[in-house]
Amino acid sequence: MQHLILPVLLASLWTLCTGSADWCYQSQFTCDHECNTPDKWNHANSDCSGKQQSPINVVTRKTLPDERLTPFKFNNYDHIFRGTIKNNGHSVQVNVPHLATISGGGLPDTYKAVQFHLHWGTDGGPGSEHTIDGEQYPMELHIVHMRQEFSDLTTALSDAEGVAVLGFFYEKSKSANRKYDSMISALKSITAADANTSLSSISLAQLIPPEHNMTSFYRYKGSLTTPGCTESVIWTLFEKPIPLSHDQLKTFSDLKFKDGKRMVSTFRPVQPLNGRQVYRSGGAVILASSALLVAAITMAMGLSQPN
Ligand SMILES: *[C@@H]1O[C@H](CO)[C@@H](O)[C@H](O)[C@H]1NC(C)=O
Ligand SMILES: *[C@@H]1O[C@H](CO)[C@@H](O)[C@H](O)[C@H]1NC(C)=O
Ligand SMILES: [Zn+2]
C-alpha cells in the first residue's frame, strides 16, 4: 500500500512545482505564477517546435504572386445566428453553426466555419500574431474552418490540409465600428475566465471587410498558434484591416486570465519560416515597391515640371 502512495504523491508534487499543468503567454509569467511560456510549449507538445509553425512575419517583397489564389466564395457568411461568446482563459471565442463555408481562394476543398477568436495587445497597443514587414497590428481575428467532410476540429487536425484559418488584422480608426457594438459590449459580462454570455444576433459577414475588399491576401502552410501547435493549417492573411476605435480595441484588455490578471498580449511570437514560401493573390500589393513607384512618379513629375 505504502509504496503505491509515495510515487503518486511525488508525481502530484512534481506537477505542482514545475507548473507543467498549463500553457500561458509571456505576459502571464511571474515568479509566483510559473507557467509554460511560448518558448516552453514544446515541453508538453512536441509539435510546437516543428518546422512549419505559426504565426510568421510576412516579408512582402519575398512573397510570390500565385494566379491560383482567386477570390474566395463565401457562403452563408451573412447567416445571422444566436451565439455564445466565452472567455476561455486564453482568448474570447465564439463557436459558430457549421453553416457558413468558404471555397475558392486557392483552397483544395470547401471548408466550413467552426469558431472565431481574437489575439490582442495591451490597451490597443501591438497585439497581432502575424506581422507584415515587421509591423504588428493591434489585434487579429482568426476564423477557423475545417474541411467539409469532418465534423469536429480534432479529426480535421489529423489531415495535413484539414483546417483553413482566415486571419484579419485590425487598425485603429477615429470612429467606432458599429458592427462590433454587440460583441464588444458582451465583453463586460465575461471578464472572468470561463464566463460566457449570449450574442443575440451576429453574422460572420458583419465582422469582416466587404467581399470586394478581400481579394488581396497572403497564403502559406502553418500551424495552430496555441498548443498543440498542429501543422494542419492553410493560412490566409487578408491585406485589408478591419477598423476599430482605440476605445473598442482597449475593451479587450478588460478581460481576465484564470489567475485574475488582465488578459493582455495574447499572441505567440513569430516563428521561423524554415524555407517556406509565402504566396500572394493577384491583388496583394507589395507595399515597399508601390511606395517606390509613387516616389518614382513624383520624381518624374517634379523633373518634367518647367520652372
Ligand atoms: C455558460 O456558463 C454556464 C454557467 O454560467 C454553463 O452552465 C454553460 O455550460 C456555459 N456554456 C458554455 C458554452 O460554456
Ligand atoms: C475597397 O473597395 C473599394 C471599392 O471597390 C476600393 O475603392 C478600395 O480601394 C478597396 N480597398 C482595399 C484596401 O482593397
Ligand atoms: Zn488564433
UniProtKB/TrEMBL annotation:
Reactions the enzyme catalyzes: hydrogencarbonate + H(+) = CO2 + H2O
Name of the protein: Carbonic anhydrase
InterPro entries tied to this protein: CA4/CA15, CA_dom, CA_dom_sf, Carbonic_anhydrase_a-class, Carbonic_anhydrase_a-class_CS
Assembly: Interacts with SLC4A4.
GO CC entries: plasma membrane; side of membrane
The keyword Kinase appears for this protein: no
Record-level Gene Ontology MF annotations: carbonate dehydratase activity; zinc ion binding
EC number: 4.2.1.1
Domain Alpha-carbonic anhydrase: 21-282
Keywords: Cell membrane, Disulfide bond, Glycoprotein, GPI-anchor, Lipoprotein, Lyase, Membrane, Metal-binding, Signal, Transmembrane, Transmembrane helix, Zinc
Cofactor(s) the protein requires to work: Zn(2+)
Reported function: Reversible hydration of carbon dioxide. Catalyzes the reversible hydration of carbon dioxide into bicarbonate and protons and thus is essential to maintaining intracellular and extracellular pH. May stimulate the sodium/bicarbonate transporter activity of SLC4A4 that acts in pH homeostasis. It is essential for acid overload removal from the retina and retina epithelium, and acid release in the choriocapillaris in the choroid.
